[in-house]
Write a structure and sequence with these properties.
With 253 residues, the chain is mainly beta. The chain is built from three helices and 17 strands.
Length: 253
Amino acid sequence: VGVLEFYASTEGNAVLANASGEKVGALGQPLPGATDMSIVAWDFRNDDFVRDEQGFLQRCGVDREGMLIARVDRGHPMAGFDGYVGGSDRERIAEGVFEAGDRWFVSGDLLRQDADGDFWFVDRLSDVVRTEAGPVFTREVEDLIYRRPDVKMVAVHAWAEGRPAEVAATIVTRGEGLDVARLGALLHEKLEARARPRYLRVVETIPLTDGYRPLKRPLEGAREAGTLEVWERVDGAYRRIGAAPSPEEARAQ
């Protein structure tokens, strides 16, 4: 039984498929007959598109991350978009993108495209942590942490609301718990300084969306129910800074 990867927006405008399966992790390329798709530059400091002197958007080069957009065409069976119920679609439609009058659906997802034309997922724009040193893409950090056999689930997120933010990783462990020393060594070896989580938090469970993705916004608080222990990176090493009481301890207080 083969397992192939694909990407599809709920609205149906953007569909990609890794039909060959040769590149593990790639989203592949647009299906035959699909509407036009492009990756355009995004200004993370101002949370807006990068525009040229004429006000048009700029396509990203090879392996440069940017916003995935798809052309809106009511005459195309896979490219129509009439908005959402309630009219909350203002930020999801961009007009005058590459020429006057054109309309494109804004996915809210950051992707990159390699030299072969294959698309790769980078992060949800809403999940990017805006640190003082620049944006941190949480998917990259999560994928690295998942290499550790003692990690069952992880969600990388901002430690607290506001900008600039700190990077944190909330983790559900397997078995005996988290080997913080080995995880710290892995993060130090593979990630640039700004992407290394300042805080590691071990919890009992991570809340999920209806689509079984980690619900990150509730994790941004410094002390959530179910927290077992918290570690802070100080001088390049993680030090335990506290632990929430167990249910038994809480009942005894």
